[in-house]
Amino acid sequence: MSGILGSIKTLLGIPVDETSFDDQLVILINSNLSILSQIIYGPDVVFQITTTYGDIDDFIHSNEAVAALAQTYLLHKVRLSFDPPASSTVLAALKEIIAEEEWRLSDYTIT
Questions:
Q1: How far is the CA of 17 from the CAs of 30, 43, 50, in angstroms?
Q2: Distance of alpha carbon 46 from alpha carbon 16, whole angstroms
Q3: Which of 11, 43, 75, 94 is 20 to 30 A from 81, comparing alpha carbons?
Q4: Cα distance between residue 43 and residue 36, in whole Å
Q5: Cβ–Cβ under 8 Å, residues 28 and 78
Q6: Are the C-beta atoms of 25 and 45 separated by less than 8 Å?
Q7: Collapsing DSSP states into helix, strand and coil, what is residue 34?
Q8: What is the DSSP letter of 102?
Q9: pTM, entire model
Q10: What pLDDT, in 10s, does the model give residues 54-97?
């Protein structure tokens, strides 16, 4: 498995062939892709993944820097919902990182 789901699973420490969490992760990823779409493209662009389809390059067509930041943003947002840190200090730091990523991504508005 490759693409966004596979990358998120790997970064969360979930084996790629473990499918128990796929439905939950796809829902979280798609929810956060909607937010990302609004930040980068505006409200008219909808991009969703499935358990077998969806690569960051399909979403961000032309800019590797934006694609890398978008994938990191998705990881942080999904982690915050799926596996939030137990430490309040780490949680606060993660939320600050997400806020900065949103700010930086908004600077890359693609039309």
A1: 20, 34, 15
A2: 26
A3: 43
A4: 10
A5: yes
A6: no
A7: helix
A8: H
A9: 0.86
A10: 887 777 776 788 888 988 999 999 999 999 999 999 999 999 99
Q: What are the CA-CA distances from residue 71 to residues 4, 23, 33, 90 (Å)?
A: 8, 19, 10, 20
72: tokens are 């990191």
Q: What type of residue is 45? A: V
Provide the token pair at 35.
Answer: 């937010």
Measure the CA–CA gap between 69 and 103, rounded to whole angstroms: 11
C-alpha 101, offset from chain centre:
11
Name the residue ranges covered by the structural domains of the chain: 3-106
| Torsion sign across C-alpha atoms 95, 9, 51, 54 | positive
In this prediction, residue 107 carries a pLDDT of 85
